[in-house]
């Protein structure tokens, strides 16, 4: 039987990654194209410049197909995953009436307000890219949350949405057909005209699917621009305190997401650009004692809405520390913050995590994986797949390559390297976690005072 190839698109906050997989989940070609810096013309406004999302998807898809041993017509289907919480305002033909609003734009935290007469449709970024790719105004239900007029129990629009229904796209479940590649999109991406395109979900849920998260005894640490801990279940839990309920990338399932770190891995990238080569920084950080000799990082490089004066900081310099301490302190802050947030979520869900699954670019760092295992006191496993694989799994299910999501995950997701915790280091981190949980009680008044000067 001829091998069927699946193309997964992961349009993220910092880059677009496109990978060609076979039906067993083996990578056959891949490419990555960085996004351009966001436009920030005034405080609170964060926009993707011009048509950057669509341009990067076209460039990354063409590059992946150029390195693929097969032909474009060998691609059986496409899974489409884009950045969550963005807002796209479209003309009647599906093109942008104005730049896409980033998830960091303060306007996306408020319901849509009509100000531009050119706007005919209001959608998430996934709806916009679907329209460009297929010419159809359909989108996954699983990329709408928050201020969108979505019923999280039925995965459908509410009966009387605040946005006129004719301005909203039709909704489908993950794994359902969105449409097929148009002639114009084929020229832009290099895909064949008529290639089926399938719905996925929000990018965190697609990443969870591709990482192999399948039960509530595993915590997935998603190391992206926004870092969060996630687990999965079958209940919609609308009023939780330590987490919020999102749609999973399986119809009828939910993703429970802890409080997280805004600009999480962005901060790591920023520090790497200041301090030097990532490989050297990881090697040096591995030689720094746990606890970074008293240096701690407060990871607030982007203030939350409820504490707008909050800032990031390094605390505890005394002359012993160098650049490797700075780097390790950030990695420890990530692990200890998510350890506390994950524990609060587990307690509210009435579960306990047996293992920590780690996905995203930071999972490639052995020193970070060891810090995670030691902080949690649980085995940490490196995820071998991510959002591109999750998108390809959705295409595989939609095409019938595999009979359902369980079969597809079993066939296409492989377990990664496992890191065991060190009991002594875990005890040190257990004590240090209390410091991290209390430090903002001291830094918030300081930054509030500085903001008033």
From TrEMBL:
Keyword Kinase (UniProt): yes
Keywords (A to Z) from UniProt: Carbohydrate metabolism, Kinase, Transferase, Xylose metabolism
Superkingdom assignment: Bacteria
Ranges where the Carbohydrate kinase FGGY N-terminal domain occurs: 5-109
Keyword match Kinase: yes
Boundaries of every Carbohydrate kinase FGGY C-terminal domain copy: 220-398
Gene3D superfamilies the UniProt entry points to: 3.30.420.40
A Pfam family of this chain: FGGY_C
SUPFAM superfamilies the UniProt entry points to: Actin-like ATPase domain
GO biological process: D-xylose metabolic process
InterPro entries: ATPase_NBD, Carb_kinase_FGGY, FGGY_C, FGGY_Carb_Kinase, FGGY_N
Protein name: Sugar (Pentulose or hexulose) kinase
Organism: Amycolatopsis sulphurea
């Amino acid at each position: 039987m001829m091998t069927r190839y699946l193309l997964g698109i992961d349009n993220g906050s910092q880059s677009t990654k496109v990978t060609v997989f076979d039906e067993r989940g083996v990578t056959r070609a891949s490419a990555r194209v960085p996004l351009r810096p966001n436009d920030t013309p005034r405080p609170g406004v964060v926009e993707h410049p011009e048509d950057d999302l669509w341009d990067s998807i076209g460039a990354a898809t063409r590059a992946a197909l150029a390195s693929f041993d097969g032909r474009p017509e060998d691609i059986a289907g496409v899974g489409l995953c884009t950045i969550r919480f963005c807002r796209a305002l479209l003309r009647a033909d599906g093109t942008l009436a104005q730049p896409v609003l980033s998830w960091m734009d303060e306007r996306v935290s408020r319901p849509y307000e009509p100000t531009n007469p050119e706007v005919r449709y209001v959608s998430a970024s996934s709806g916009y890219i679907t329209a460009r790719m297929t010419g159809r105004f359909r989108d996954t239900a699983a990329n709408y949350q928050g201020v969108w007029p979505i019923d999280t129990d039925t995965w459908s629009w509410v009966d009387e949405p605040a946005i006129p229904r004719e301005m909203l796209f039709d909704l489908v479940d993950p794994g359902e057909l969105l449409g097929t590649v148009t002639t114009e999109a084929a020229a832009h991406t290099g895909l064949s005209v008529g290639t089926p395109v399938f719905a996925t979900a929000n990018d965190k849920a697609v990443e969870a699917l591709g990482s192999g998260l399948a039960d509530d005894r595993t915590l997935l640490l998603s190391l992206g621009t926004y870092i969060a801990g996630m687990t999965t279940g079958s209940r919609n839990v609308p009023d939780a305190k330590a987490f919020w309920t999102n749609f999973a990338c399986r119809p009828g399932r939910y993703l429970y997401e802890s409080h997280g770190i805004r600009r999480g891995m962005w901060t790591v990238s920023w520090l790497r650009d200041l301090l030097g080569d990532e490989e050297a920084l990881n090697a040096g950080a591995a030689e720094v004692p746990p606890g970074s000799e008293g240096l701690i990082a407060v990871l607030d490089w982007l203030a939350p809405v409820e504490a707008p004066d909050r800032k990031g900081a390094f605390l505890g310099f005394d002359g012993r520390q160098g650049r490797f301490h700075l780097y390790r302190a950030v990695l420890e802050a990530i692990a200890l913050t998510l350890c506390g947030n994950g524990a609060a979520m587990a307690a509210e869900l009435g579960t306990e995590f047996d293992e920590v699954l780690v996905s995203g670019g930071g999972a490639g760092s052995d020193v970070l994986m060891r810090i995670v295992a030691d902080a949690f006191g649980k085995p940490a496993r490196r995820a071998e797949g991510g959002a591109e694989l999750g998108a390809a799994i959705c295409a595989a299910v939609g095409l019938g390559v595999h009979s359902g999501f369980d079969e597809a995950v079993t066939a296409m997701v492989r377990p990664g390297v496992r890191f065991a915790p060190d009991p002594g280091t875990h005890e040190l981190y257990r004590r240090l976690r209390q410091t991290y949980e209390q430090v903002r009680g001291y830094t918030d008044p300081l930054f509030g005072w500085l903001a008033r000067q």
